[in-house]
């Protein structure tokens, strides 16, 4: 069953919600600010979500107090993310680093971890992530929400909702791993955050009009993607050997580009459903292979590239699509320019401006060990997706599997799922 | 023009020397009188010569009975004197609670919570913001964990947890510092104004540290921010009665159950100022402690203005229209505090002021009563009586008012202002944070006199005078150990939020 994306989630099977605030231990100097780049501003209507579930054996003895105290150590490193947005006189948003803090949400669930994980559509994990958009009052809108859900058996669900304007998915994972190390009590040597240039190195400075970003009507101070259609989410697991390899001629088992194949298959399925017009352009978002430095680890450095084909997608083979994805054009420079234009007063959509595929499969999400144990399950998604839809591919618990979260307009979801069944992606 | 300022400068320097001369003369008047008498006596002796002196000596007929009676009389008088002298009360050491950084409440967080909780009352939010901007508090003051929730969750359990956290941490530190064993505590006084569970907080301490069954324990509640000095006074009286004993005083205010949940403006004020804190003090009358004790208690004066209705009602706990309980602070608070201070000074002045100031005050009083009622009243210079001042950090207005009334310099009130900035208004324990600040700055020398002034609901003004027993080395641990280098810090009139 797909789950509708609604704001203010965290209710449903979760009860006894309590809100509090955590922040940084050391005070930030008065007057400190953080200026978002053009690329940051282009992402402002999107929010990244991740939910990690830990078994009762790992988490039973962890107290809320300890989890909160460990968060203080995390935010000492990234105190600017605990600030609040404000606008300059020109209207350009910036972060006032006033140590306001992040919202910490506590909840209880009457199911055990086992019962929770037994549900086939993993998008139930949306309930583990408390989300509110930034706005309508910028000054009192936290940029990050953390939800701690205690299951009946003592297991723990940790959900993070993170405004994309402060950093990409890889930054979120970095911050979460830092937190788990603090919880476990490991001494962490974080690199001192440098205030240098936070921009990316782009090899393609010539792309001027990026197609992967779409300007939307002004949203004012409530940073929510204006969609006409209601979106739904569906999440499932894939086995590489059983469901991916058959679609691709095997040259060497290690060299198959798993993400591209999954993207290609799903692209075909969506194209079959969405006949007029076919989605001939898609956006691919991946980690920047040149971005290896951990300094300035919290920023938007993901590669946003665009793929355009000139043949009908529904009839194409997966190989053709995978090949064309290899020729994706990095559009970050253009997005940076357009995002910062008009003093950041314009509003854009990137995820879902065109059908978007996000590759998080290179990140070992199960390295986020608490007390030495990996999570039982990890879920990733994005809030505020545009109407063209989004597919997020990420590592699953078993290394030969992948987790896939699909967000599409409600009207298309059932038909696309039928196509998935036909391709063998999900069980009939 | 170089001529004009010169006469002024020379005249002010002349005035200073005149003042100094006058003070030396009056304060050491008896010594000055003694010099001529000794001179005359010496001249007489020299004139008489040794044989005449011997003759005078032999002519005095000493009867055995006379000698015995005289010596018996002398011994009797000196015994009565020593026995009736009050015991010296020592402050051996004290320990202040340092809240964890995870309880920190920056201004922005406080205002955000206020906006979310009082979303229907923007005027009340605006009021809180104005108070916070001018409060003199810093970004590192702490509130207990239960108050960090939106809305706060002040259960009795949470209040007890806060009490256990602050009191036990302070007491553990005190036991470690002084090497005292819990079994050796003779008197225990706990003062916490607004949280009074059953069994009492003093019973909670006795339970935790397994104190003796014949301990004399007292729990003071409802006595406001001046209860710390009331506890010291009580300890002093008990230590006069019980020889060879020690007393532990725990001063604290538990914030959790008293956070005002309504939206009346006058009652929102304490929320902005009161913060977590506690202090544990060890006092003793044992002779063996006189080498290691930090201070000796010289005087303690308590003034109660409760007989006056305006004073009685100026800090009043009541329910608002919606049934929320809070503390209503009247607008005349500063004026009433000023009057209470005057009453207190009138009593303590003669005890501590040097003779020079008292004479001047007497002359000015006579002048006003008899000659010219319009003469300005002479305000004695308390800076001559004390080296250090600890004014209860009740709020910026209190410190400003006292600085003006007592004509103190910025350095004298620095301890109070910096304590307000770093820890907020911690109620009865704030005096001990201020004393710790002075010690951490290395300013406390042997013989220095300290004046602690506390105000409290009722309306009360209590003051204590301590004399430093030994020069105190800068403490390595303590509430100021990690931040003393940053202080003193400039506190702007209005902080831009």
UniProtKB/TrEMBL annotation, chain A:
Coiled coil: none annotated. InterPro entries: CAT-like_dom_sf, Plant_Fungal_Acyltransferase. Pfam families: Transferase. Residues 1-20, 189-211 are annotated as: Disordered. Belongs to the plant acyltransferase family. This is Protein ECERIFERUM 26-like. The lineage of its organism: Eukaryota, Viridiplantae, Streptophyta, Embryophyta, Tracheophyta.
UniProtKB/TrEMBL annotation, chain B:
Pathway: Lipid metabolism; fatty acid biosynthesis. Its EC number is 2.3.1.-. This is 3-ketoacyl-CoA synthase. The chain crosses the membrane at residues 20-43, 64-83. The keyword Transit peptide does not apply. It catalyses: a very-long-chain acyl-CoA + malonyl-CoA + H(+) = a very-long-chain 3-oxoacyl-CoA + CO2 + CoA. Residues 387-467 form the Beta-ketoacyl-[acyl-carrier-protein] synthase III C-terminal domain. Signal peptide: none annotated. Gene3D superfamilies: 3.40.47.10. Belongs to the thiolase-like superfamily. Chalcone/stilbene synthases family. InterPro entries: 3-ktacl-CoA_syn, ACP_syn_III_C, FAE1_typ3_polyketide_synth, Thiolase-like. Residues 81-369 form the FAE domain. It is an enzyme of class 2 (transferase). Keywords: Acyltransferase, Membrane, Transferase, Transmembrane, Transmembrane helix.
